[in-house]
Write a structure and sequence with these properties.
Protein name: SPASM domain-containing protein
Shape: elongated
Structural class: alpha+beta
Strand order of the largest sheet: 1-2-3-4
Number of helices: 6
Distance between the termini: 26 Å
InterPro entries: 4Fe4S-binding_SPASM_dom (IPR023885), Aldolase_TIM (IPR013785), rSAM_sf (IPR058240)
Largest sheet: 4 strands, antiparallel
Bound molecules: iron/sulfur cluster
Organism: Streptomyces formicae
Length: 129
């Protein structure tokens, strides 16, 4: 498992720069190293298959559950916006696949030639073949 963290001037390691000095998101120290158990616990508790309300949200694997800082401080006021934006992007992806399927072949990493052959690939959640 790879992870990054941010350190405070006092040497605590936290989940990100926005959560520096928040003890609820401390995962070790510069002096003592990463607290792998705290990190694993943090990630497990916030996994979109377990966290409410994400576990029943259709966009959970695209959204990822939101910014830890925002969720901790303000909750999830942006969920409707996020779902609307993702729905727009998915519709645009389907439209593009139908009208210009070569686009996906050109934009696939390393030109591997994998492409969206039908819009049904997107509907089935397999946009990359
Ligand atoms: S849109 Fe909201 S409820 Fe859905 S996965 Fe993202 S944070 Fe969770």
């Amino acid at each position: 498992m790879q992870a990054s963290s941010s350190s405070s001037a006092e040497g605590s390691l936290n989940a990100c720069h926005r959560l520096v000095d928040d003890p609820a998101f401390q995962m070790g120290s510069v002096a003592g190293g990463s607290d792998r158990a705290a990190l694993a616990e943090h990630l497990a508790a916030r996994h979109v298959d377990r966290a409410e309300p994400c576990r029943s949200c259709w966009s959970r694997y695209l959204c990822g559950g939101g910014c830890y800082h925002e969720v901790a401080r303000r909750g999830r006021p942006g969920c409707d916006y996020m779902r609307g934006w993702l729905a727009f992007c998915l519709r645009a992806c389907v439209e593009l696949a139908e009208s210009a399927p070569e686009f996906f072949r050109r934009t696939t990493p390393n030109g591997a030639g994998r492409h969206v052959s039908q819009s049904s690939d997107l509907h089935n959640g397999r946009p990359w073949g």
